[in-house]
Amino acid sequence: MSDWQEEQAIQFRDIVQRKPNFKMGPITLDIPKGFITAIVGPNGSGKSTLFRMILDLEKPQDGTVTVLDHPIGTGDDAPIKQRIGYLPEESLPHDDKLKAFEKARFNSCWYKNWDVNRYQELLLALQVNDNLPLGKMSKGMRRKCEFAIALAHAPDLLLLDEPSSGLDPLAWKSMIEILHRYMDPGDRTILMTSHIVEEVKRLADYIVFMAQGRVLGVYEKDELFSSWFTFFVSGEGLTSQMASRMPGQCGIESVGGQSFRITTSEAYQAEQWCETEGITILSKQALELDEIMSTLLLQDGISKRVHEARGKAR
Ligand SMILES: Nc1ncnc2c1ncn2[C@@H]1O[C@H](COP(=O)(O)OP(=O)(O)OP(=O)(O)O)[C@@H](O)[C@H]1O
User: What positions does the domain ABC transporter occupy (predicted)?
Assistant: First the structure.
């Protein structure tokens, strides 16, 4: 196997899935080993569907999923599942009657690397008592217990589907610290989904944007936030046609006279372009994650419409 393949924790290849009112793919996507990757996207994009495919809880109609160099769903997945921790978006109703420590005890029999001390430390850090039926806990208490249970066998790959759902700010902070410590050894991988901008900013090394069953883009976080800016510019004789030529331009708004607000995904090149063209940058502002997402969705909608129109014209 090549070095390139060994660097990937998860490889999705040509994944296609169809459900009533939903079509996914084809998706080809690599999740790098040793990093935290966050998948972000509107409700119903297919984020949880991808998670379920990793665990063979849902089979793609087409394509393959390879996890830690093991092709999923082609034989005995039990050894690879030993190396995965999973926190699903929704709690499992059939666990309701179990006390959290009973679920932990059950998992300790299954996972060879289960570490009871680690489990206790996690409960302590999250300030939660596991001596209650999961179904009688508050949403946040249950989330904390399930989080501790997902991490107690120190998995090589951790799948977190909206991990902070229901957590109070203090517990949220503890969770972020726990996850940073979990990554300390350097060879572990987290794949997570989140709708919380601050959480993605604090945790993710890589960000995958998804919408309507497709991947819109994969970005290294720091590069993403240093590339997407809105420039407020002005220049002698500056027209919207000229402004539209700014590198990476993905939105223009006239703000009167010869001034424009231009959004770009290539801030560095855009600044150089302004200098060359004699355009003054009055101010610039980095885009937030949700603003980048909106812009990508808008661009995707436009390119889809153009594609459809071309298809009809043929
Ligand atoms: N059990 C199911 N039966 C039929 N369709 C389903 C089922 N579960 C999910 N879907 C559909 O699959 C699509 C993708 O859902 P998925 O849960 O993967 O999205 P998501 O991106 O995780 O959304 P969210 O942000 O709301 O959690 C949706 O259109 C949803 O309606």
Answer: 10-237
